[in-house]
Amino acid sequence: MSESVRLAKRVAADLSCSRGDAERYIEGGWIAVDGAKVEEPGYRVAPGQAVSLLPGARLEEARPVTILVHKPAGLYANDEPGSARDLIVPGNLMPGDRSGQRYLKRMFNGLRLATPLERAASGLLVYTQEYPVARKLVEEGRHVEQEYVAQVSGRLEEGDLARLQRGLAYEGRAAVPMKVSWQNETHLRFALKTPAPGFIEYVCETAGLRLQALRRIRIGRLPMAGLAAGQWRYRLPYERF
To answer: Which molecular function GO terms apply here (predicted)?
Structure first.
């Protein structure tokens, strides 16, 4: 009995193309084995298995992606299984996504969280393969304004709001001015440059308030608008942080 071969080798032979082009077809989601799409060039196929090129197949360069996720409270935000990364599946894609991107396994290669968020908090996360985005949000993150809505209980004394706006030192970080305002009688809105985890809760406690829920609604110039909890979408080419 003949041995199985790598799918890339089989595709290259069947299509009379280079091994590199065969891998691009496979990783681009254009190859089916026995009618099922396979995206791994190293997948082993037996001589009797049917390998076919799917309709619309084309050779295209792999474009790195950036993904926006609305993390529900209670989920970890990291790159590990069991975290908000697991939300990035076709069934959770925001209805009406206009990116034109096809969901492919290769978009998880090197995909990393660029915007940490406390487990107890909900709101906007950014996962990216794009170096310029990672540089902006990680290496230069201290310059990127983020916006949060904090549900609180308690009352502020006269002058407390102005004191908070001047900023507070926290875990070795110097006090930096921030925008703090009441959204309504139970919700405070914060706009500040990439806060350390736990900072907003510390600010609330310092002012005699109890933080009951926290939601990040904007990172830089990108709001979370339109993303329901648990949904995700691709960053559009014209969107900038």
So the answer is: 23S rRNA pseudouridine(2604) synthase activity; RNA binding
